[in-house]
Amino acid sequence: MDATFTAEQDEIRRTLRELLLKRCGPEEVRAAVRTADGYDPGLWETLAQQLGLPGLALPEAYGGVGCTTTELALAGEELGRALAPSPLLATAVLGAPLVLGLGTPSQRAALLPRIASGELTAALVVPGAALTTALGLTGGNRGDWAGGGRAGGVQARQADGGWRLYGQADQVLDGHSADLLVVAAHTGGFARPRTLFFLVRAGATRVRQTSLDETRSQSRIQLRDVAAELLGEPEGADVGGVLARVGDSAAAVLAAEAVGGADRVLERTVEYVKQREQFGRAIGSFQAVKHRLADLYVQVQGARSAAYYAAWATVEGRERVGGLALAQALETLRVCASEAVQLHGGIGFTWEHEAQLYFKRAAGDELLFGPVHRLRAYAAEEARLFGGGEVAV
């Protein structure tokens, strides 16, 4: 692995950081999450049309930039520093790769250029709390996690030469504002059960939910006899394999996001302890505080190395380590945010201070993409570290 970034990669980080410093401070974040979309449309237009972030990892043949997961992870790290609310995760990290991996040539040609330009946003609809299982991060995704029928979830049925969907999903990232829903649904009943993906453009009932982390909007999607288009071909599609690859890449990007957040909250804490005084001196001069901050710094650097390696491994087709990198990064963000709240003293516990935003991001991401111990347990199970048996979680 070559740990040196190219000039192009450094330019992506520099340009994005400068833009976010100008247009995505704590007050802008608070204002954006309270809009109908849950993000700033003007900022998203800039990210999409001027910087090309939605198409960063898409092939040039479909209007993308032709870069890799590594570049997308670097962009994610900068967005994570600012906690920038945007549909990038749902659209470019989860939705677009599924269309690319499962879609027919005509579906790819129709959808991916519009996604790459930012004209079309997408959301991945997975029933219940099965997102990490579907992505192969906390469990095997070859089972019936999509539910259907009495098991809940979403059921797909053929009718009048097309497909109709029935069911509900409650934790859909950016589902209320997405132009395109990529829905996992159970087909075949009890005789031939399988999970396929469908494209829904209209007809679904969408309700934005109150979430712990307002910077990651979540929605309830209700499908009542909704017309849908099958994504790809009904036979021969390796849905589980494609999902696992998407999950590994998504975990690397999410890990980089968490590292960016941890790095930023640590920076802000270091700045504060240099200013806050007790007993006539800055608290940052106390040895105990120095030790705590030094431990955090080492933890952030370790998580950053893991995130970068995971992104590189997905590009090189090496072992799947995205889940492990995500576990380390989520834990690091949680610890850094907790220490920030404590070291900021009384102000760190208030809604007015930005420390609470990072703490909520840490807690919210663990609920959505973890928890950490399950990410690690499943990685250990896959690597057969304990004799090939299942790991108790």
UniProtKB/TrEMBL annotation:
The keyword Oxidoreductase applies. InterPro entries: Acyl-CoA_Oxase/DH_mid-dom_sf, AcylCo_DH-like_C, AcylCo_DH/oxidase_C, AcylCoA_DH/ox_N, AcylCoA_DH/ox_N_sf, AcylCoA_DH/oxidase_NM_dom_sf. Keywords: FAD, Flavoprotein, Oxidoreductase. Residues 6-119 form the Acyl-CoA dehydrogenase/oxidase N-terminal domain. It comes from the Bacteria. GO terms for molecular function: acyl-CoA dehydrogenase activity; flavin adenine dinucleotide binding. Its cofactor is FAD. SUPFAM superfamilies: Acyl-CoA dehydrogenase C-terminal domain-like (SSF47203), Acyl-CoA dehydrogenase NM domain-like (SSF56645). The keyword Flavoprotein applies. Belongs to the acyl-CoA dehydrogenase family. This is Acyl-CoA dehydrogenase. It comes from Streptomyces dioscori.
